[in-house]
Amino acid sequence: MNLYEESIRIIKKNQTETGSYVASPSFSQYGFCWLRDSSFIAEAMAEAGEYESAGRYFRWVENVLVKNKEAISRTLQKDRSDITLQDFLPTRYTLTGERNNDNWENAQSDGYGTYLWALGKFVEKTDYKINREMVELVCRYLEKVWKHPCYDAWEEEKDALHTSTLISIAAGLKAGAKMLDRETAWKEIKCFIEEECVTEGRLRKSTLNSGVDSSLIWGVCPYKLWEVQTPLVRNTISKIEEDLFFEGGLKRYCEDSYFGGGSWILLSASLALYYQETGQEEKVGLIERWIESQADAEMNLPEQVSEHLLFDDYYEEWLNKWGKIANPLLWSHANYIKLRPYGSN
Ligand code: BGC
To answer: What pTM was estimated for this model as a whole?
Structure first.
């Protein structure tokens, strides 16, 4: 029994028959299928050879999109200047693919980019037939909304354009261009990032925050929008290491107070992926050992680990509000799988 195999088992166990993955089966707030989490999960599962699971998820998304066809068309018909957050597709759905109309903010577009990127990789590996009409619709939707501020990958700060969100959209539209065999706006978005989302030679968190955010790593690992050796990437990673990396565990961003601002497994794994790509094996080992030491007796990996907290005082507050930190979090397992520990695959 090893954590790699157990991670695959835990992900499979928490996928519905129709294909949705639950973000976390036991955490009070995470009983939904997020396009962001799940697309990263499906991509990792496909890399691990679990094609049936990944394919089932992609079909599930297609069905969800079909149900939302009219809503998407309505957004497409609007002038860009008239678009509001109400016109955005939700980031999370119930496990049966319905919208959940609670008051938790939902307008986030990065997950649709991640979805297209993951789907693009999947069709290259398998004989999966895409629903072209839906892929076209999602591409046009992202081309329409990308310049409109929305909540970020952490479901926060609706008034900014978030670099990491733009990165996910660019990666998705790049994959979309290949699947549809047509130009998409991905190059324009990448240029926009390089011009408008850079401070001191590195990427910034958003148009409103000049700090860094660990989700910026996704621009190279796994999306490969830039080469690992470009100065922009190197400077961004250095700043992330300097501000957010603590003995194997990585924080989301400096002002993070969610559960006090612990260290996130899935982000640490993204950084380890970057270290793998740049041949920094010692650092890969440090992170792998740190992640493995966080697994509980059932081999579950949590969302975050409450160490080196950025804001101690907030930990109790979140604990009282939402209960214990999500454990297992499927996305943590997925990003760990991507490291191919024990030389697996
Ligand atoms: C995170 C999101 C994630 C969701 C479900 C939230 O706390 O900020 O990125 O999609 O949990 O895992």
So the answer is: 0.98
